[in-house]
Amino acid sequence: MSSAKSAQTISRLWELLQLLPARPPGAEARQLTAQLHDRGYAVTKRTVERDLQMLSGIFPLQCNDKGTPYGWYWMQNTALDLPGISLMDALSLQLVEQSLRFVVPSSMLQPLTSRFMQAHNKLRALQEDAPGAAWLDKVAVVEPGMALLPPAVDAVLLESIQDALLRDKQLDALYMSPHHNAPKSYRLNPLALVQRGAVSYLIASCVPYHDPLRFVLHRFKSATLCDEEAIRPADFKLQDYLASGAMQFSEGEQIKLEAQVRGDLVTLLQETPLSHDMTLQPCQGESYRLTATVSSGIQLDLWLMMQSSSLTVIAPASLRERLIKRLNKAMQQYQSTV
């Protein structure tokens, strides 16, 4: 038997032992077969019956043969706390490891290192024989915008920032803003970590002020944990902060957007509206009149520029004029390079 086949068999038997109840009337072979199928093991009822007979010669298992179908269970006071993980557990752990590295402190992830390794080894051993083990190769999450490579974040700095946030301590930081020629020193009150696409942000206030600001993690040049307790405003709630449009680079202003839309953008907006109050009303030709309450800011401007061939802003007038200037400037730049 190949090593991969042996690993798959051992894993299946381990799962089978975990499925057995601690008391009669026990679990039937047909029931156990269905449960193994749910966990990604394509076995027959006959194979499960042979497995149970073999395992009963090694482990304290009992077969309730007083009636049919027979039920299998652990003998009294002998059920084992088996340290294995199920296929679903392994898949979940792999997803956790991939997606939470930046937003979960490494000190909190450290106890899971052995479980991550166990999950990785289990999926690798089962990938040829258990269809579910290949699930992560069949699903993906992609960003709707331009695919950008994630910036490099120093692991030591990340750990210091996460530790300060976890312990509610202030942070002495040296930060390079894109608008300055040299790094600047800050004393920060960490409030939250936010992952936005490929970029991670620390939300923090600068002493002695209390307004939450965005700091891109890869622009930190140094970060040192302080003994002083961080000042966390009582009214700061992360979900409220996100709902304000702050991570869309808005200053919190809500505007009533009016525009004329056409083409495929109409279908897109019907399927994925801009807001809960968005409306699309037919007007001349194949165009539609759009109205929606949205957060004003850079993200909105970028989206409107992207959709400029299918969308024409009508109001607010200030937004319309701003977009016209940007489109004219872009046209001039294109014309000057020909």
Automatic annotation (TrEMBL):
Residues 256-330 form the WCX domain. It comes from the Bacteria. InterPro entries: CBASS_pafABC_assoc_protein, WCX_dom, WYL_dom. This is WYL domain-containing protein. PANTHER family: PROTEIN PAFC, PTHR34580. Residues 157-224 form the WYL domain.
